[in-house]
Amino acid sequence: MTASSSFRRLIDSLPEHAVQQAIANAYKEVDRADRELLTLAAETPGGSSDISDSQRGKNYNLNRYSDVVPYNHNRVRLHGSHDYINASHIALPPQLSANKYIATQGPLPHSVGDFWRMVWEQEARAVVMLTNPVEALRSKCAEYWPLQVGESKKWGELVVALQDERPMLGCLSVVVRKISLSTGGVERLVTQFHYTEWPDHGVPKSPLPLLRIIDELRSSISPLPDSPVVVHCSAGVGRTGTFIIIDAARGYFEKNRDYQGDFVADAFRSMRSQRTLMVQTLAQYMMCYQVASYILNNTS
């Protein structure tokens, strides 16, 4: 498909093997170049692909995975002298979406306080969690919230309290938690959407739970695009990047019936320039097209 081609026509031709192969080839080319860039960045600091901050001193131990780190130019910077967290500001091209995101790893036991500090300082109202704390007997994310309703914990200067926890109505695979953050007499409410059935490096059986999260997120929790949504899985790239594309597509195609070019590919390339390995597998990339097809065919 050329830049002037209709995305709707691409979606309609998605069942064709040749189209699927062309999409796969395009993905693999961007993925190969991205991995080469990360290797080069580790060897040669400087430029937009500089990752040197993530390797400096104690910062290195704040990375869950050594090969998934933020670029210096758009990493989230915490207030104060110890400003490092493995998190990246993500903004898609304005013609795709005005929404702002923070893509981050699942907190480590010793970085939970930094995670909540980031949520507070960035004034985020929503957290989308796309992993389970343990998957395949491996730790994927620290449990960074109090586990009992009414319980509170203090991390640094922030008091974190679990006010409510419930399964999403009609969608038992999503747990919705209302969490209050307070410090210095000021309190804010954050909503966490925890999707529990998305396998690591894989894709969920149905897109409907993700679309239910997006509908509730955008209708009542974080309707203003300037308020960043914190999105994380384990590494903060594969499931995280896939969710961001689907959220952007949902918003765009609610208002528009077509897009000149390839919406998914444009969003994917933009995200890969902002955080390495976003949309980590070909299966996740193809899922973006399939969900875009569902949105286009089920939006009045």
TrEMBL record:
CDD domains: PTPc. Signal peptide: none annotated. Its EC number is 3.1.3.48. It comes from the Eukaryota. SUPFAM superfamilies: (Phosphotyrosine protein) phosphatases II (SSF52799). PROSITE patterns: TYR_PHOSPHATASE_1, TYR_PHOSPHATASE_2, TYR_PHOSPHATASE_PTP. Keywords: Hydrolase. SMART domains: PTPc, PTPc_motif. Residues 208-286 form the Tyrosine specific protein phosphatases domain. InterPro entries: Prot-tyrosine_phosphatase-like, Protein-Tyr_Phosphatase, PTP_cat, Tyr_Pase_AS, Tyr_Pase_cat, Tyr_Pase_dom. One of its GO terms (molecular function) is protein tyrosine phosphatase activity. Pfam families: Y_phosphatase. Residues 33-295 form the Tyrosine-protein phosphatase domain. Belongs to the protein-tyrosine phosphatase family. Non-receptor class subfamily. PANTHER family: RECEPTOR-TYPE TYROSINE-PROTEIN PHOSPHATASE, TYROSINE-PROTEIN PHOSPHATASE 1. This is Tyrosine-protein phosphatase non-receptor type 3. It comes from Coemansia erecta. The gene is PTPN3.
